[in-house]
Design a protein that fits this description.
Blueprint: H1 3-28, E1 36-41, E2 49-57, E3 62-75, H2 78-81, E4 92-104, E5 111-120, E6 124-133, H3 139-154, H4 160-171, E7 173-174, E8 179-180, E9 185-191, H5 195-220, H6 227-246, H7 249-256, H8 261-264
Antiparallel strand pairs: 1-2, 2-3, 3-4, 4-5, 5-6, 6-9, 7-8
Helix pairs in contact: 1-5, 3-5
Length: 275
Amino acid sequence: MNLEIKKDLASNWFRILQNAFCDDIIKLENNKVKFKSTVWKRSNNKDEGGGEFRLLQNGKIFEKVGVNFSKVYGKFPKQFQKNILGAEKNPNFWASGISVVMHMKNPLIPAMHFNTRYICTTQNWFGGGMDVTPSKTDTKEKKDFHQILKKMCDRHNKNYYYKYKKWCDEYFYLIHRKEPRGIGGIFFDYKKKNFEKDFKFVRDVGITFQFIFNEIINKKLKKKWTKKDKEMQYIKRGRYAEFNLLYDRGTKFGLQTGGNVEGILMSLPPLAMWK
């Protein structure tokens, strides 16, 4: 299959997913809150692509949720080339993806994160994943979440769940605090052996996240919470911010490749606390 067709298929899927996620989020908010859309360009001087950053704040359910789509291309800065697969000798790249971060008003509903991407240098690959960060332990929710992920992964390869769960656990870990960010999920990168199979898996990851966030929110939507629950959420959000600013590869990639700063930092919670 021609590389340009692969790029179009991946990019179009990420855009479809952005619309689908936003439609569901607005329905959950009973159509009473709207997304603010910001269309941006990577460069004002030449065509290097761009994207659309959608932000919804102060809803009844979502305190802050960002749904970000991008399709960018150009050349990596020299200092960044050696860190990217296939860019060591040729700085040209093309990348498209979708990223979602949800921070909830109800502290009993966990923060949720999802992203998938397709990157082309002299090599081409998919990456992404999803994870959940509760501020209060819920053993059943954790079990259900991982069962859904395993079932989805098993449809494609029986080894995927264990491999990508381990990768997620290792990645979303705050080294300086010696603690995980949340209850894990799956994380994968450098999927480049078979475009058709890999793209099928990536689509399934997106559809599964759509099911998961609707399921979790609807189950806990009307649960009562206390002032102490909210304080715990703020403290957990502080940890979330620490991880994203210190360790997150997507944040670093976006900032170092001329991405939209507001969109890149949309993962940061609206309010946090350190104690």
